[in-house]
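subagent[fold] <- orchestrator: predict structure for attached chain, return C-alpha cells only, no commentary.
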Amino acid sequence: MNTHSRAAIGICTSDVSAGRPLIPTNISLSLATSNIRATYNWVMSTPEQSPRLSRRPGFVFIRAALRIRQIYAEALAGVGLLPNQHAILSTLEELGSCHQKELAERVVVDQGDIVAYLDGLQTAGQVVRERDPKDRRRQIVTITDLGREVLAESDRILDQVEADTFSVLSEKDRVHLDRIATSLTKQRL
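subagent[fold] -> orchestrator:
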C-alpha cells in the first residue's frame, strides 16, 4: 500500500499525522459516536468548499462510507455497540471461537484496538476470553448467548438502516454498487 492510499484510508481509521486511532480505545460510546459525527461533518462539508474533491471517486467513496458509518454508529448505540463491536460479534457468530489475533485480522482492526473493543464486549457479557491451553500467550474469544441476542437485535436494526439508506438506489443499482465495492475491496493497493 502506498503513502497516498494509507493517507486516504487514514481518514476513516486513524489520525494519520499523529498515528492515533480515529476513535481512541479508552473513550465512552457517546464520545466515540460524537467523534465519528465530527469527522462525518468535516468530510460532508468539504465538497461544497471544494468541487475538485467531489470529482474524485475515492473521496466520494470515503464520504459515503463515513456517512454510512455515522448512521450505523448512531443506530447501534441504541444496543450499546460500536460498529466494530458489531463486526466482532458477527465474525464470532460465523466462525465460532477463534484467537484474538485472527479476529483482529478478519475484522480489520489493529490488535491493540481490538483489546479495547473486546474489553467492552466482555464487560457487557457478550463475549468471553480464555487462554488457549495449547499456547497460554494466546486468547480464544467466544460469543456468549447474550452476545448472540444483542447481535440479532443489532442485525434487525441494521436491516432497517440499510433499507432506508439504500432506498435511493434501484435494485439494479444496488447489485451494481455491491459488485463495484466488492471489486475495489479485493483490489490490492
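orchestrator: received. Logging for downstream: The first strand starts at residue 14 and ends at 15. The chain has one domain: 52-184.
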